[in-house]
């Protein structure tokens, strides 16, 4: 029977046998398939080395990056005991609008099962547009497991993120670091893990406030850590202010040992390019580039490094680049602040002699 009050059909035709509009037309008219996700969620990692929990630098970087995307909310989620509430407040000064504090006294340690369950529960409640984690050891475990539990995709080990009208453009190295791929996701939330140091630390907004939502939770009993092992002492490459980095042009192990000796004298961190790792001369955790660390030191001394685009991705943010390479056409000379075209071994010998002379003069 015809219903004159019906506004769905403009012709007011008979409704006998059902509405004449298709399901697709109705869905479009009433926006039934509209994406209801909103906001950018960041997993906020905490540092307990000084006793009271504080934000790790990578968490500050990700909060600041999310703040720059658009005008949507920036939502942090952190796991910790009641004492972590101060870290929650700290997150506001780096860009967070809301913090979900998943609380339990045992959450001073990383619980993979518990964190996965808690993160999944909060995400399913909040329905954020994006979910971003650091590509730390823990984040590389937590991110994919959470994505699998929710049935969504995840782009791992990103070096850059950009937001375009609600679509997250996730850039990461591929084909062994030979190419950069920009990936889009057709699932929500759009998930990514990001390398520490990929973004600068944001400026602190003192006095900025937000909302803390407590989320009590009992830890999952299935997996419990047997022990906690402290990380080796020493500065992380991503935090180093002076880096001496060696490439294939270092030539031999004798030159490498001289470079290490100079690093010790100057208080610098040693780094390397990919081919040095492949030769077995240095560990992979010292590699800089698309498939290694992203660094931004005050001074980056590049010894025998050609400057391929894969390596530049990891170090081009250095404040001052000094390059020593005997190839005048090496790409590293194009981005260096100071270029020395010459033999790396001879340069190292002269620098080591100069440092020894200065030390003797001081004595």
Secondary-structure map with pairings?
Blueprint: H1 23-29, E1 40-43, E2 46-47, E3 54-55, H2 57-69, E4 74-80, H3 85-92, E5 98-103, H4 112-126, E6 130-134, H5 137-150, E7 154-158, E8 160-164, E9 167-174, E10 179-183, E11 190-194, E12 211-216, E13 242-246, H6 253-266, E14 269-272, H7 274-278, E15 299-303, H8 309-315, E16 320-324, H9 332-335, E17 338-340, H10 344-362
Parallel strand pairs: 1-4, 1-6, 4-5, 5-12, 6-11, 7-11, 13-14, 13-15, 15-16, 16-17
Antiparallel strand pairs: 2-3, 8-9, 9-10
Key features?
363 residues, alpha/beta, Rossmann fold, seven-stranded parallel β-sheet, globular
Report on this model:
With 363 residues, the chain is an alpha/beta fold. Strand 9 (167-174) and strand 10 form a beta hairpin. Helix 4 crosses helix 5 and helix 6 (253-266) runs parallel beside helix 10 (344-362). The radius of gyration is 26 Å and the shape is globular. The termini are far apart. It is built from ten helices and 17 strands. Helix content is 29%, strand content 23%. It folds into two domains: 40-216, 3-Layer(aba) Sandwich (Rossmann fold); 237-362, TPP-binding domain (Rossmann fold, 3-Layer(aba) Sandwich), CATH 3.40.50.1220. The strands form four sheets. Strands 7-11-6-1-4-5-12 form a seven-stranded parallel β-sheet, with helices on both faces. The longest helix is centred in the C-terminal third of the chain and has 19 residues, at 344-362. The protein has helices at 23-29, 57-69, 85-92, 112-126, 137-150, 253-266, 274-278, 309-315, 332-335, 344-362, and strands spanning 40-43, 46-47, 54-55, 74-80, 98-103, 130-134, 154-158, 160-164, 167-174, 179-183, 190-194, 211-216, 242-246, 269-272, 299-303, 320-324, 338-340.
């Amino acid at each position: 029977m015809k219903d004159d009050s019906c506004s769905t059909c403009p012709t007011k035709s008979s409704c006998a046998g059902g509405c004449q509009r298709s399901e697709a037309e109705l869905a479009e008219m009433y926006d039934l398939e509209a994406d209801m996700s909103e906001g950018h969620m960041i997993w906020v990692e905490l540092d307990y080395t000084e006793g009271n929990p504080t934000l790790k630098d990578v968490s500050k970087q990700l909060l600041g990056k999310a703040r720059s995307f658009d005008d949507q909310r920036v939502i942090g989620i952190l796991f910790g005991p009641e004492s972590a509430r101060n870290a929650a407040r700290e997150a506001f000064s780096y860009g967070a609008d809301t913090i979900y504090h998943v609380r339990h006294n045992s959450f001073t340690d990383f619980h993979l099962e518990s964190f996965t369950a808690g993160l999944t529960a909060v995400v399913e409640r909040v329905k954020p547009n994006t979910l971003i984690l650091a590509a730390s050891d823990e984040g590389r475990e937590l991110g994919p497991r959470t994505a699998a539990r929710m049935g969504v995709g995840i782009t791992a080990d990103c070096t850059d993120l950009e937001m375009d009208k609600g679509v997250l453009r996730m850039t990461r190295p591929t084909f062994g670091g030979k190419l950069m791929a920009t990936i889009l996701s057709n699932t929500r939330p759009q998930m990514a893990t990001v390398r520490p140091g990929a973004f600068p630390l944001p400026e602190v907004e003192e006095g900025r406030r937000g909302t803390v939502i407590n989320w009590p939770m009992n830890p999952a009993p299935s997996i419990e850590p047997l022990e906690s092992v402290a990380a080796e002492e020493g500065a992380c490459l991503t935090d180093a202010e002076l880096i001496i980095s060696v490439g294939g042009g270092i030539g031999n192990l004798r030159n490498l040992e001289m470079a290490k000796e100079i690093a010790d004298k100057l208080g610098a961190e040693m780094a390397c390019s990919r081919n040095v790792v492949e030769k077995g001369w240095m560990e992979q955790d010292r590699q800089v580039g698309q498939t290694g660390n992203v660094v931004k030191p005050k001074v980056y001394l590049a010894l025998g490094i050609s400057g391929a685009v894969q390596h530049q991705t990891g170090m081009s943010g250095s404040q001052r680049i000094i390059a020593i390479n005997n190839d005048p056409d090496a790409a590293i000379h194009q981005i260096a602040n100071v270029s020395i075209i010459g033999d790396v071994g001879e340069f190292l010998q002269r620098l080591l002699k100069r440092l020894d002379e200065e030390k003797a003069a001081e004595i």
